[in-house]
Amino acid sequence: MHKTAKKQNVKVSKMSIFSLSSIPLVMTLGNSMLIPVLPSIEQKLNISSFKVSMIITVYSILAILLIPVAGYLSDHIGRKRVIIPSLIIAGIGGVISGVAAWLMDNSYWVILIGRALQGVGASGAFPIVLPLVGDLFKGEEEVSSTLGIIETANTFGKVLSPILGAFLAGFIWFIPFMSIPVFCLISIVLIMIFVKSPKSKDKPLPFKEFIQHTKEILHQDKKWLYAIFFIGAIVMFVLFAEMFYLSDILEKHYHIKNVKKGLYLAIPLGALCLTSYITGKKIKKDKNLMRWITFIGLLAIIIGTVALNFSEKMWFIIIFLTIAGIGIGGSLPPLDALITEGIEKEERGTITSIYSSMRFIGVAAGPPIMAILMKHMEHFQFYLLCAITLIAAVAAFFRLKHIDETKPS
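The chain above was modelled as a monomer; its predicted structure follows.
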């Protein structure tokens, strides 16, 4: 059986990994692609900055609430049986938002409904990829390397998003909404053809026993699990807050719009993507290295963020946001690998889904909190980001070293 699994990795892994990588890419495009378009949406719909930020936030709120449910279902009925319907739902949400923006005069609330539906779909897509990777590969090095590629696809989506979003919106402002079902359809076809989920011989636990068992895991591994949950939320909060800030300042202060603005946004995101790829290749199964890379990455975020207090010159901002992006790109693959490899297969979907929910909390909170701080407490936002990132760095340094104490046999 071991030989069969090994053979499967060699024969299937390239197209399988490519297909799996399409999911975070599509989900990221479905959300981040709208960031450079938010100022245009604000003008077209005649709404406030806070209201327009909710177009990003409502997507994440629904995902936060439903990711644990999707994780539980994936542990019990199979990963693909959750992923494929979720992609279909996300595509339908894109259609609703796009058609409302196209045909309705007062379309804001219907767009939000479509975005909420996309969030429902997102809850069962990218978060389920993490445990599926853990199921497909036996060796920790393969898991770490593949998760690095998955995280790179996620970050590459963030690089491509502002360019593609601005490009599509340059034709008609609501086309980014309409493109989402197309991307979802491509991903569905790839997953159906190339990804073969390993069948579990174990009978799923009854719901009450499952809940009790999950509580036991959370209690047993709380020293490091809660730290990873917290760090993941903070990293995504900082990323989306800073990208919202950069998008806003490029358009309102420097009058840079459309594809040109997308290219500027892609600079720090490109650094993030490249760093994710290199980190995923280097960490292998060395948990101590993962801990140190996460810690150093968080320090880089602090350095890049604190510098934003000293100048509003465009290239100064982009350079230091690039440093922060490198820190974010370095910290995410180790966190993915630590939580996926540290949890047994039977609970992997549920525990990694809680981690994904925490990341989505950061995504949801970043734009609206940054919008409020920029309006009422100028420059204080950077001190806030530095303070919470410092807390995350302390958690990484002191808590992640406990991961081997409860490593499953």
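The two ends are 19 Å apart (CA to CA).
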